[in-house]
């Protein structure tokens, strides 16, 4: 289905100009049923996909795809940041536990000094 801006234009000005140059209105306006218009098939094929026919729609689609990739990338960076925060917290806990172990070991060893 065509979106409104493309439906209003139906064809790009360059396509229309090219067609009218090759086939002036007087050659096809009569409604001749056996008129050979090979470009017409190409145009009909092209305009079946609005994104192929309209560069603005094509760019919008590319922007939407890029936005999705950026959202995924940002999400993974945030998740990595959370994992780093978890590691820092665990590291801090391990550091305080090792200090307590050192202090307790020092106290235990102080009573066993051999002179």
Describe this structure in words.
- It is found in: Cell membrane.
- This is Synaptobrevin homolog YKT6.
- Belongs to the synaptobrevin family.
- The chain has 115 residues and is mostly helical.
- The protein contains six helices and no strands.
Quick tags:
115 residues; mainly alpha; 6 helices; V_SNARE_CC; Synaptobrevin-like; membrane
List the helices and strands and how they pair.
Layout: H1 4-9, H2 13-22, H3 25-28, H4 38-46, H5 50-53, H6 55-110
**Helix/strand order:** HHHHHH
Euclidean distance between termini CA atoms: 95 Å
Uncertain spans, ≥5 residues at pLDDT below 50? none
- What's the average pLDDT? 78
Structural class: mainly alpha
Work out the helicity level: over 70%
Instruction: Tell me how many strands there are.
Output: 0
Beta-strand content estimate:
under 5%
Largest sheet: none
Morphology call: rod-shaped
| Total of DSSP H or I helical runs spanning 4+ residues | 6
**Global Rg:** 36 Å
Membrane topology: Lipid-anchor
Subcellular location: Cell membrane
Organism: Colletotrichum spaethianum
Domain V-SNARE coiled-coil homology: 55-115
């Amino acid at each position: 289905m065509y979106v409104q801006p493309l439906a209003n234009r139906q064809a790009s000005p360059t396509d229309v100009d090219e067609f009218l140059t090759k086939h002036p209105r007087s050659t096809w306006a009569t409604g001749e049923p056996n008129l050979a218009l090979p470009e017409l098939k190409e145009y009909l094929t092209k305009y079946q996909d609005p994104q192929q026919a309209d560069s603005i729609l094509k760019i919008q689609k590319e922007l939407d795809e890029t936005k999705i990739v950026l959202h995924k990338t940002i999400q993974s960076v945030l998740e990595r940041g959370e994992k780093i925060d978890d590691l820092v917290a665990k590291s801090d806990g391990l550091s305080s536990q090792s200090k307590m172990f050192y202090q307790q070991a020092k106290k235990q060893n102080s009573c066993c000094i051999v002179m």
